[in-house]
Batch of 2 targets.
Target 1
Amino acid sequence: MKWIKYTSRQETYANILLWSVMLIVPVVGMVVLSSVDNNYDFRWIDIWHVMRPMLVVLLAFLVHNYFIAPEIVYKNRKRRYYVLLVVLLMAFVAYQCTSGPPAKPPVAQHVEQDAGSRHGLDGQKPLPNPNTPPRHFDRGRGGHHRGSKPLAGPHDFTMFSLLIFALGANLGLKLYFKTMREKQQVVELEKENLRQELTYLRYQVNPHFLMNTLNNIHALVDIDPEQAKSSIVHLSKFMRYLLYESDQELITLRQVVDLVSLYIDLMSKRYAESVDIRFDAPEQVPNVGMAPLVIIPFIENAFKHGVSYDKPSFIHMSLRVVDSSICFVCVNSKNHIKHEVGGVGLANVVKRLDLIYGDQYSLHVDDGDNYRVELIVPADSLGVQTMKNLANNY
């Protein structure tokens, strides 16, 4: 049925726990009372007398939970909810006022033949029988006793108060779990937005790099066909990485080193030997990880702004692991073209670093005689745990 979808498993468990307490407490109270009060004799039939009105409250609770409360909690139909709630309360009050056993009529005094504790001595008024059930008197005109049930009594007021408490608790639980579900939906939406934003920022690297590489290969086709073929193979490997491996939240440092080597190989083919290009990486790469494509934009920026065709230029890069961090340093010369520190590529990579690492990374840019970038990000288990925690918060 349609209303079942509104009730989550946690909400059902909470309602079961609520009613378990409400049904057990009276029974426990009767048992405790019988153990401390010698005049009270505990009988199992008394439990039924207590549970019978509680079952009526439970029925009203279920009606409210599945048919009435969803009107205001999920559909925001306040007027309809209040009308249905008043109808439910009136039906409960009508049931309480018209049900239940009537007051017991007065029982005639039976004088037994056996003189003793049940009869007074010397013609006195007989003593009351201790086994006689208590009488409920409703005096009418002339002092005559009636057998009709009063319109309402303390017991009816107690059950009505219990119903109000149960309905209030039910409405509160529904609002609480609805709020929890909405928060979870917001978290899932933020995660999806983060994934889409990271994908968008990641793929902004591709067009500019692809254009430059294709131009390089085009120039090599006539000059050095074998080198052009090798460049096509390297480009294919690089694009395969961008399409598949870069979608992961974490890649190994070995993959980073291979990717940077491919990029440098493809870009260096268009420059003469006057450009000093170096890349220092550990021979034995530690088995640590980092986010993909956070280094490439800095290298791309170094090739774009650090190479001059009329004077010697250099691009020196290093990648190493220090303690529990990965440190990348890129230093390059400057050409005469105005260098934009806050370019689109760098702005995107900084945004990606903020999204992935939060405040767990360090980036220093020195735009002096030479352009120097130093990036430090968490590595190994620290990097994995940091990214997992940050991914769970979005």
Target 2
Amino acid sequence: MRKLHQLFAPATNPAGKSRHTAIFAAMENLQQQIAAYQDEINAFHTADAEALEAFRIKFLGTKGIVKGLMTEMKNIAPDERKAFGQTMNSFKQLAEEKYEQLKSSATAGTLQPAGEDYTLPGEAITVGTRHPLTLVRQQITEIFKRIGFAVAEGPEIEDDWHNFGALNLPEDHPARDMQDTFYISTNPAIMLRTHTSNVQIRAMEKGKLPIRLIMPGRVYRNETISARAHCFFHQVEGLYVAERVSFADLKQTLYFFVKEMFGQDVKIRFRPSYFPFTEPSAEMDISCLICGGKGCNVCKYTGWVEILGCGMVHPNVLSNCGIDPEKYTGFAFGMGIERIAMLKYQVKDLRLFSENDIRFLRQFTGAV
């Protein structure tokens, strides 16, 4: 490498003596800078990735030393710029080679960021789980599938006929007050369904008998949210319509379901009840799984918890759907999935199912 003072020797023209003297002094200063930078580069050794990045920025960055020295090209006599460019290229090549050497060492594992330890195990990837209501719904569905029930679904936005009228609930029927309904403000004849019975009506209207279906889905009621109630929840309803279907068929079907869902030791009882779409009607209780039948706040200290309503399909409902009630009979039942899940997993607050608290949901990993 030629010395910079050799590249920029003073000219013999007396008129330009002062200018050449200034150029010579400037180039001596640049030569000293480059020599110092070369020594710094050759002495640079680090096990710190942050320091290596600082080296790159200082020497090779867009505002680094190499680019800064390159801007001095304009101050050099035109006939000497080629030699100066060669000097600068050598300096740049030295910085780049040093950086690549250290970078290769980092790739080989001899260099690591300050405060980092690549020998430590990585962070575990959290795998999602199925929601407890999904688990319970799937289990209910599988139990009924084993005894011949298929699955049907229907719209959540429904008209008055399929949600109320066809179910033996005319407009002036007092039983409509039993359910606080979300109506569409622009059309009061359209509403969010209050039960999945609308799917039963649509299935019976098709006239394909016999019918043996369960209808899971989300329903909506304008209720105050509390530990035992919500404005939306999930139901599974069942329907069996054929010739000579009896209440005994209904009881044995539900006995099978309860034993499969909660175990052979659970106790069961039926109580007379009233529903406008079934006659006779009943409610089914099981012994409280939380207190073992001894009495607690969940079972209101009775030892029993109601899990579903049921009954024989009312003849008026069959007639409304075009089915001859003299030839066919049927039974229907309905249960809240949240109620079944609360009993199965001993959850005491209904709101937990819709709060998306990961601490709660994580408990159901692999639960069936």
